[in-house]
Amino acid sequence: MFGRGAPKKSDNTKYYEILGVSKSASPDDLKKAYKKAAIKNHPDKGGDPEKFKELAQAYEVLSDPEKREIYDQYGEDALKEGMSGGGGHDPFDIFSSFFGGGGFPGGGSRVRRQRRGEDVVHPLKVSLEDLYLGTSKKLSLSRNVLCSKCNGKGSKSGASMQCSGCQGSGMKVSMRHLGANMIQQMQHPCNDCKGTGETISDKDRCPQCKGEKVVQHKKVLEVHVEKGMQNGQKITFPGEADEAPDTVTGDIVFVLQQKENPKFKRNGEDLFVEHSLSLTEALCGFQFALTHLDGRQLLIKSNPGEVVKPDSYKAINDEGMPMYQRPFMKGKLYIHFTVEFPESLTLDQVKALETILPARPVSQLTDMEIDECEETTLHDVNMDEESRRKKQSPQESYDEDDDMPGGAQRVQCAQQ
C-alpha cells in the first residue's frame, strides 16, 4: 500500500486508550469522549497540559477517516513519518474549533469569547469660537492597563485557582425574604473574586499589581476639534478605555458641549446676531462694525434711502459657520434688527416731522360723531406682568366689588 520502505505494524491502540473508547467507536462516540476528557483536563481549568495535548492529538487523528485508517493499520509511527501528516496542530486550536470558538461551560481564557469593555465618556466644553476656527486640546487621563510584570495574570506563576465562593462562575445568588411565602432571588458579582471566577494565593500575587491584573497609567490624549463640529458631536479614541484580562478594550468618547456665546447664536450652519437701531438709523440709514468669531471686522451698512422695519432680518452670505469636513463652505450670518423709538416728542418736533413724513390718513369721523364719543385715557402696560397678576389672583376684581367701603351693596336697576 505504501511502496518500498513502508513501516511495519506497531501499537495502534494508544489513541483509543487516551480517549477511553474502543476501536469500533463511532464518530459520535469519539466526540463525546473527547469533549468530556478535554473539559476535564483543560489547563485553564487546572488540568494536566500534557494530557490535554495527548487528547487533542488522539482526537485529531481518529476523527479523520483517512488518518484513522492509516493509524489502525500501521500505528502512530506511520503518521509521524509523514505518511499523512497528523498530530501537528495546536491542541488549543483543535479544542476551539471543536466547540465552535465559543468556549465551553465554565470556559478557559484561551477559547472564551471575549466580552467588550465599557466605553468611557467624557464631556468636553468648547466655545463657539473653537467650533468656528477649530482647535486642539490636550487632556491627561488615568486608565487601567494590563500589568506588564505578570502580563495581566495577577500572579507570579501565571496560574490561578477557581474561586470557591462562586465555583468559577464569577456570580453569586442571594435570597431575600419579602414577606410570607415570598422570596426574591438576586444575582450579583462574587465579592471574593470580584466577578472574575478566579483567585490567587497571597504568596503568588504579582508584586506590581498586587493580584489586580491591572495598574493605573496616565496618558495624554490630544483631541482635535474640527471646524464646523456641532454641539453634542462625539470624538472617539478606539481602544483607549480601561484594559482588563480577556476583554476587548472599549473606547474613550468625548462629547462636545458648546458654551453660550454672548453675541452669536448658532443654528446648524447659520449664525444669528441681534442689533438695535435708533429710529433715526432705521429711517435715515446706519453703519456699524461687527467683530466676527475670528476677530475680523465686518462693515454693516444700509443702502441709501432704505428704511429698516422693526423685527426684520437681513442676511450675509458665506459668513456663517464652516461646514463640517467642508470648511471652505459656510452658512449665512443673519442680523435681527430691533428699532428703539423715542419716549416722547416736543410739539416743534411733531410739526417738523409732519412736514417730512407722509400725510396722516384723513379721518372718517365727522365732528358730530366725534362729539358723541366718550373720551378715554391710554396707559402704558406690561403684558407679562398683567398675565402674571391675573394668574395669581383670578377673583381679585370680584373681591374688590364685594368689599366696597361703608358696606355698600350692589344696586340693580328695576325694570319699569
UniProtKB/TrEMBL annotation:
Domain annotation J: ranges: 13-67
Keywords of the record: Chaperone, Lipoprotein, Metal-binding, Methylation, Prenylation, Repeat, Zinc, Zinc-finger
UniProt organism field: Vicia faba (Broad bean)
Protein name in UniProt: J domain-containing protein
Pfam families: DnaJ, DnaJ_C, DnaJ_CXXCXGXG
GO molecular function per UniProt: ATP binding; Hsp70 protein binding; mRNA binding; unfolded protein binding; zinc ion binding
PANTHER family: DNAJ-LIKE-2, ISOFORM A-RELATED (PTHR43888)
Role summary: Plays a continuous role in plant development probably in the structural organization of compartments.
Chain residue ranges for the region called Disordered: 376-416
Presence of keyword DNA repair: no
GO process annotations (BP): protein folding; response to heat
CDD domains cross-referenced by the UniProt entry: DnaJ (cd06257), DnaJ_C (cd10747), DnaJ_zf (cd10719)
Ranges annotated as biased composition (Basic and acidic residues): 376-388
Highest taxon listed in the record's lineage: Eukaryota
